[in-house]
Amino acid sequence: MPSGGDDQRHVAAPVASPLLRVENVGLEYRTTERTVRATHRVSFDVFEADRFVLLGASGCGKSTLLKAVAGFIPPVEGSIRIDGQTVAGPGPDRIVVFQEFDQLPPWKTVRENVAFPLRASGRFGRRQAAERADRYIEKVGLSRFADSYPHTLSGGMKQRVAIARALAMQPRVLLMDEPFAALDALTRRRMQEELLELWAETRFTLLFVTHSIEEALLVGNRVGVLTPHPGRMRAEINTHEWDASSEGSAAFQAAASRIHRLLFENDAPGAEGTA
């Protein structure tokens, strides 16, 4: 017979569901001569406020994966779900920031570029959209340039406008396709640090594509390492411990060397794993 006293039961903490789930996704594209397999059965989960980085060499399908998550490319196998709903096309819950600097309409000012998608979505009137645009323009440090046109801005400033425009829409997932690759090294580093500062302030969910190991370690809290073409998920690595202050450390360089080996070692069956 059980002894007296309080009946104490241990209840397991609920496990968070992923915001984004990519499951066994295969992607293909056609050339004039043949059909090319871009990715093969790639799976990963992205949780609320994650900074998940897809890292791989050119041609591994990482940008194609990002476009599939954005809804621009349908998988030939597998599924992509946001909040449990299958992605069937582009939507305001997923906003993309591209590498190109010419993604801003040149006839619109900085404020107009940020406010336009807010108004086009039907969620905000003219005044509300302008006020919200000004708030996010301030977050990226461009208040003095709110009335400027894109041709008067540097490449880094244009990318800040694109980021402000995306975050103002408050997407469920912010998608960034090598957004700093075309910038010089100093500007690129500053943009990486500013992105992390914005994340610390607003805690958005980020899916980020890069071919730079160092950038992946700095920007991500989790990194998915893709094999060369066709892209398969080689490993998933927790990278939350790294920041700009640790880049020169022996531990950081050891992590970078390990990822380099994962990227370019022979693609053998069973190589995929979690680290």
Automatic annotation (TrEMBL):
Keywords: ATP-binding, Nucleotide-binding, Transport
Annotated PANTHER family: ABC TRANSPORTER ATP-BINDING PROTEIN, TAURINE IMPORT ATP-BINDING PROTEIN-RELATED
KW Transit peptide (keyword) present: no
Gene3D superfamilies the record matches: P-loop containing nucleotide triphosphate hydrolases (3.40.50.300)
PROSITE patterns linked: ABC_TRANSPORTER_1, ABC_TRANSPORTER_2
Domain ABC transporter: 20-253
Species whose genome carries this gene: Plantimonas leprariae
One of the Pfam families matching this protein, by short name: ABC_tran
Family: Belongs to the ABC transporter superfamily.
Superkingdom of source: Bacteria
InterPro entries attached to this UniProt entry: AAA+_ATPase, ABC_transporter-like_ATP-bd, ABC_transporter-like_CS, ABC_transporter_ATP-bind, P-loop_NTPase
Lineage: Bacteria, Pseudomonadati, Pseudomonadota, Alphaproteobacteria, Hyphomicrobiales
Name of this chain's protein: ABC transporter ATP-binding protein
GO molecular function annotation: ATP binding; ATP hydrolysis activity
Signal sequence segment: none
SMART domains on file: AAA
